[in-house]
Design brief:
alpha+beta; Ribosomal Protein S5, domain 2; Rossmann fold; 5-stranded mixed sheet; 22 strands
């Protein structure tokens, strides 16, 4: 028996793999940073910056400077206390080395070093170290400069004293590991969005971002974020060009045993809600107990005020949550000692006690504000009452587009060419510009899992319309019926979507881009959960067909076209029987071409629409699709400097 080979189906101790130190992070990086693409790459910076912000929350840091170096390495400098350099009592290592090499180690567990913190899981900096080709930390503390260097999570030098320091602080520099990441180039605007957000959430904190990736002789791109007004200024920034109903945001702050709360809100003349919630500086874009408490308090308080002051007629129903949040821009920031987040991504707050605490504070403080500012209260309530009337008027239209259940019978748009599979996870819906392209798509698709919905012309710009007008638009009603989720707070359910992917497929021209923007505006404003769940995509049809003899290739840009021409011509500029066809629209492609280039999952390219920059997305939608012409003109001129005399 001793020489017998073990059964491959046996499961014993030998098969249990033990990953020591930071090996687990390198083995499964997505568990810690979300992905090894752009999202994870930028997450490394956020983890390091969050450590510095925690120092600011503790009252020790006033400035954070971030640098993108020419080689896409990152440096983050703060003037906090600096990492500990004394020996850890149990690990027998300097404190900084423990923080850099041990998971779940940090000063955020003892409740004394940090009162509140974003990185409560304690894996932030150690994960960055594990996933970096190299990392160097420099500490200014005790009048000395300490330095230590690591490579892929392992130290390559001891902690050394390298000079004398005048103040305190930390400098962390690192370069993401090409063995881990498929994307290695940082996007300035993504980092800018998060750093600006942090500066708004921490009034008075100065944060700078410098991009040194410039041509020789050019000046680095530098931005500074510093807002003494904190979230009050944040609300003004988010509102952008929309006209306010009252001149200044309403600001509420309170300190309770469970939390410290800041709330700023302002109503405008638009029809969309823009509420952003944060816990310990983390954007909880999935909401949670703090958002639930705020919504309940806002609805209750405004209804109570309206009844008490005769602003609601006796025969009117109470104002709904949608009514009182129409045109609202709001930032809610809570600081909690022990937040319970759903997962390491920290996108939803689970602390049940926070709902009651937020509700109590908002009820008390907002009621007091409304009593002291009757003109502001009346303006807000009049808008909410108008929204309620529009909601009642829209009820009939809403019922026309509500997805029927099996007992009622399925009512789907007649022009929808549905797929035969019933599993939503496997199904795709193509929203196609025009009947001609829709015909080609219907013929070229795989009928088993691909559904086609042709759209006629441009849908309504929902940025400028109340819900009753939105639901009176035939094309929008058709989309809602096809998708199946319903619409509105009380009816929408992402679980009812009939498709796992919704793909916008428009022509590669100006009109196509406009239609795509209108559709994205609709989904962002009225079905945002579909974007949050990663279900909205943009098709990428080719611009050119380049053929020579029986060989053909497709080009998705002018540069690709030129490369193909060069290849077919043997590197010469002269044309040698090469045919170039420019597709003006999807309808010019025959069904098999459309399938091969744009719809075949094996060969197509589709772009997933994400919510990573929700604040910036909201501003862009408001600027491009809102009522104000001048901000739109400025945006276009700044982003397309060669365009002149635009009729915006």
């Amino acid at each position: 028996m001793a020489n017998e080979k073990p059964d491959r189906n046996d499961y014993n101790a030998e098969q249990i793999q033990v990953l020591k130190g930071l090996e687990a992070v390198r083995k499964r990086p997505s568990m810690y940073i979300g992905s090894t693409g752009s999202r994870g790459l930028h997450h490394l910076v956020y983890e390091v910056v969050d450590n510095s912000v925690d120092e600011a929350l503790a009252g020790y840091c006033t400035r954070i400077d971030c640098f993108i170096r020419p080689d896409d390495s990152i440096t983050v400098i703060d003037n906090g206390r600096g990492f500990p350099v004394d020996m850890h009592p149990t690990e027998n290592l300097p404190g900084v080395e423990v923080a850099m090499t041990v998971l779940h180690a940090g000063g955020k567990f003892d409740r004394t070093s940090y009162k509140v913190s974003g990185g409560l899981h304690g894996v932030g900096v150690s994960v960055v170290n594990a996933l970096s080709e190299w990392l160097e930390v420099e500490i200014h503390r005790n009048g000395k400069i300490y330095r230590q260097r690591y490579a892929r999570g392992d130290k390559t030098t001891e902690l050394l004293v390298v000079g004398s320091a005048k103040g305190n602080g930390s400098i962390v520099s690192f370069k993401p590991d090409p063995e881990i990441f498929v994307e290695l180039s940082y996007t300035f605007d993504l980092l800018s969005t998060r750093l600006r957000e942090l500066a708004f959430l921490n009034a008075g904190l100065i944060i700078t971002l410098t991009d040194e990736r410039v041509e020789k002789g050019a000046k680095p791109r530098v931005e500074e974020y510093h807002y003494e007004g904190g979230i009050v200024e944040f609300v003004g920034y988010l509102r952008g060009t929309r006209k306010p109903l009252h001149p200044e945001p309403i600001f509420i702050s309170a300190s309770r045993e469970e939390m410290e709360l800041e709330l700023a809100l302002q109503y405008d003349e638009g029809y969309n809600e823009n509420t952003f919630t944060f816990v310990n500086n983390i954007n909880t874009h999935e909401g949670g107990s703090h958002l639930t408490g705020f919504k309940a308090a806002l609805t209750r308080t405004l209804n109570d005020y309206a009844r008490k002051n005769g602003l609601l007629k006796k025969d009117m129903d109470a104002l709904s949550g949608d009514d009182v949040r129409e045109g609202l821009t709001c930032v809610l920031s809570a600081k909690i000692k022990e937040p319970q987040f759903e997962g390491q991504t920290k996108t939803k707050l689970g602390n049940s006690e926070i709902r009651g605490a937020v509700e109590s504070v908002v009820n008390e403080k907002l009621s007091m504000f409304l009593d002291e500012h009757p003109a502001v209260a009346r303006a807000i309530l009049e808008k909410a009452v108008q929204a309620a009337r529009a909601r009642v008027a829209a009820r009939k239209a809403r019922e026309l587009v509500r997805r029927k259940n099996a007992l009622e019978g399925s009512v789907l748009p007649g022009k929808l060419a549905d797929c035969s599979i019933n599993d939503p996870a496997l199904c795709e819906l193509y929203l196609v510009e025009g009947d001609s392209a829709g015909g080609s798509a219907k013929q070229g698709r795989d009928r088993a899992f691909q559904a086609i919905l042709p759209l006629r012309g441009k849908i309504l710009n929902v940025e400028r319309a109340r819900i009753d007008k939105v639901l009176s638009n035939e094309e929008i009603r058709t989309i809602i019926a096809a998708v199946g989720t319903g619409i509105g707070e009380d009816e929408f359910s992402v679980k009812n979507s009939r498709y796992g992917k919704i793909i916008i497929m428009t022509d590669a021209d100006v009109d196509g881009a406009h239609i795509r923007t209108l559709l994205l505006t609709f989904f962002y404003r009225h079905m945002k959960e579909l974007i949050e769940e990663g279900m909205i995509f943009i098709a990428q049809p080719p611009l050119y067909r380049v053929a020579k003899g029986k060989e053909e290739q497709y080009a998705y840009s002018d540069a690709e076209r030129d490369q193909l021409l060069s290849r077919y011509n043997g590197g010469k500029d002269g044309k040698t029987n090469v045919n170039v066809q420019r597709y003006k629209g999807l309808g010019e492609m025959n069904p098999d071409q459309l399938w091969k280039t744009t719809m075949d999952p094996e060969s197509r390219t589709i772009l997933q629409v994400t919510m990573e920059s929700a604040v910036e997305a909201d501003q862009i939608f408001s600027t491009l699709m809102g009522d104000e012409v001048e901000p739109r003109r400025r945006f276009i001129e700044e982003n397309a400097p060669n365009v002149r005399n635009l009729d915006v």
